Amino acid sequence: MSLNAPLITPYVGKKAPALGPCAIIASTLPDLQMLRGLLGLPKDKYRQLNMSRLFRGQKESAPCLVGPVTGAPYAVIILETLIAWGVQQVVFVGWCGSIALNVKTGDMILPDAAFIDEGTSSHYQASQTAFVKPSNKFLLKLEEQLTGNGLDYHKGSVWTTDAVFQETPRQVKYYQNKGAIGVEMEISALFTVAAFHKIDLAAILTVSDELGDYNWRPGFKDAVFKQRCNSVCRAACDFFGR
Questions:
Q1: Which contiguous run of DSSP H or E holds residue 235?
Q2: Is the pTM of this model over 0.90?
Q3: DSSP assigned state of 63
Q4: Domain map of the chain by residue range?
Q5: Selection from 201, 14, 8, 198 nearest residue 111 by Cα
Q6: Among the residues of 178-222, which ranges form H helices?
Q7: Nearest 10 degrees: Cα torsion 230, 203, 208, 167
Q8: DSSP character at residue 123
Q9: Element (H, E) at 106
Q10: Would you call 80 helix, strand, or coil by DSSP?
């Protein structure tokens, strides 16, 4: 017995679904519902996966859909379960706050790196002071998809935090100085674990609120935010050839 081997691994039993290689993980319930409709998946046909719902694609080549997912530890539980069940390619769809003055509510962010300020990544051999990146080839393909859909986006790094209610001006300024343009709660852990398991994962984020001038301006009810969420969800579905 290896003293470094994990004692608990994702359960793969007789009733575990044999998933295809592709998955979309939705952070929020509104995006999950939108993605389900775009993929043509019945709303009442799903498998409960912890606190999330797993919708299976109607064809083996179609992506499965999972969500909602909030926070780094829970996101990793879902990701590792999907990997154990056969998934090798993941697009994560989520929301984030802007910490750059030129990034506004309703804008899209395509993260090309994430600064680790969460407690999960260190358990997967990642340095707590480091930043992590998505699969490069997957990032490029996703960028091509957004461009092909005629969508404008910001490509840049994000700050991943565990404590949404402890985003102080000092912290925002610190990550601004590192070049981060957004803040959210899952990306660095997802990038870390995807690299650990050698699978492809990239993310698309919609800006839901702004903190760049050290004041909070929520935009969750803005029409432009809701429209852009729809565009992001369509791009994620198109990426897997719905």
A1: helix 223-239
A2: yes
A3: P
A4: 22-239
A5: 201
A6: 187-197
A7: 170
A8: G
A9: none
A10: helix
- 96-140 pLDDT, tens digit per residue, is 999 999 999 999 999 999 999 999 999 988 776 788 999 999 999
Rounded-to-integer distance, Cα 40 and Cα 234, Å: 12
Tell me which H or E stretch contains 154: strand 154-161
Return d(Cα 206, Cα 226) in angstroms, integer: 9
Contact 78, 92 (CB under 8 A): no
At the topology level of CATH, where does 22-239 sit? Rossmann fold (3.40.50)
Alpha helices in 39-85 (DSSP H): 72-84
Read off the amino acid at residue 6.
P
Residue labelled with tokens 């760049």: 212
pLDDT tens figures, 11-48:
787 788 888 899 999 999 999 999 999 999 999 999 99
Residues in a beta bridge with 34? none
Q: Which two tokens stand for residue 99?
A: 């910490």
* In the block, residue with structure tokens 């407690």: 119
- Residues 29, 97 contacting (CB under 8 angstroms): no
Average pLDDT value for residue range 225-233 = 97
Assigned token pair, 110: 């395509």
Helices (H), 6-155: 29-38, 72-84, 136-148
Picking from 185, 207, 202, 199, the residue whose alpha carbon sits closest to that of residue 236 is 202
> Residue 156 to residues 12, 85, 122, 203, 208: CA-CA distances in angstroms?
37, 31, 22, 12, 17
User: Length of the chain, please?
Assistant: 242
Q: Does the pLDDT value for residue 1 go beyond 70?
A: no
- Two tokens, residue 49: 């996966």
Q: Is 122 helix (H, G, I), strand (E, B) or coil?
A: helix
